[in-house]
Amino acid sequence: MNENIVKRNELLAQTVIKGLQSRNMEGFYAASKEEALKLALELIPEGSTVTMGGGMSVHEIGLPAALESGNYNFIDRDKFEDRRQAMLLAYDADVFLTSTNAMTNDGVLVNIDGNANRVSAIAQGPKKVLFIVGLNKVCGDLDGAMKRARNVAAPINAQRFGLSTPCAKTGACFDCKSPDTICCQFLITRYSLHKGRIQVILVNDDLGF
Asked: Do 124 and 195 form a contact (C-beta atoms < 8 A)?
């Protein structure tokens, strides 16, 4: 990555962290994927029950593999015959791992979901929610974050899942009511009632969609 982009991202991360703090959330900066993995493992106590949504960013830093090989009770929903059972276990987990579709530079998180298992666990249930977020997902304001979630994250995920939605075919949101739509639930997290429940690792890299 260009050194000027790296520097800009470092400064942006500090702005975002201050915004998160003002919202009763915790922010951390990682200069690389490797640093993000190390930091994430420091924030997850050994012996914890850990589960996750489908966050690509979490996989990109190698966190699921590290948890599976470590002293953790990692619930991998892909290994469950009953996927719904695995999703329900998330609500009583010590730590829920996820990324975000977009966030503002003052710490507001924006997420869109189809089944709503991810956004519901972010909102309530797990004792702690740990976000892994590439700085490519930070937007200037809430309007920009909503547009990113709907016009970048949603079309790419629809394509990834092989869905037949207008955005999968055109790359842009049509505010559709397609039977395949994954834009069923919108969650805007602007404040955490429980101090420190939400932690965000900001990674100086392009992660996820």
From this structure: no
Of 192, 135, 122, 145, residue with least CA distance to 9: 135
Q: What is the model's pLDDT at position 1?
A: 84
Locate 7 and state its tokens: 């520097």
Instruction: Give the global pTM.
Output: 0.96
DSSP 135: G
Convert the pLDDT of each residue in 74-93 to its tens digit. 999 888 888 888 889 999 99
2-57: pLDDT as tens digits: 899 999 999 999 999 999 999 999 999 999 999 999 999 999 999 999 999 878 99
The answer to whether 49 and 86 are in contact (CB under 8 A) is no
Q: Under a CB-based contact definition with an 8 Å cutoff, are residues 48 and 96 in contact?
A: no
130 touches 136 (CB < 8 A): no
DSSP alpha helices (H): ranges in 23-116? 33-43, 56-60, 63-68, 83-89
Buried b (16+ CB within 10 A) or exposed e, 94-119: bbbbbbbbbbbbbbbbbbbbbeebbb
For residue 51, the cross-strand partners are 96
Q: By C-alpha distance, which of 173, 191, 186 is closest to 100?
A: 186
- How deeply is 3 buried, as exposed, middle or buried, from its count of CB atoms within 10 A (0-12, 13-18, 19+)? exposed
Sign for the CA dihedral angle at 129, 92, 81, 118 comes to negative
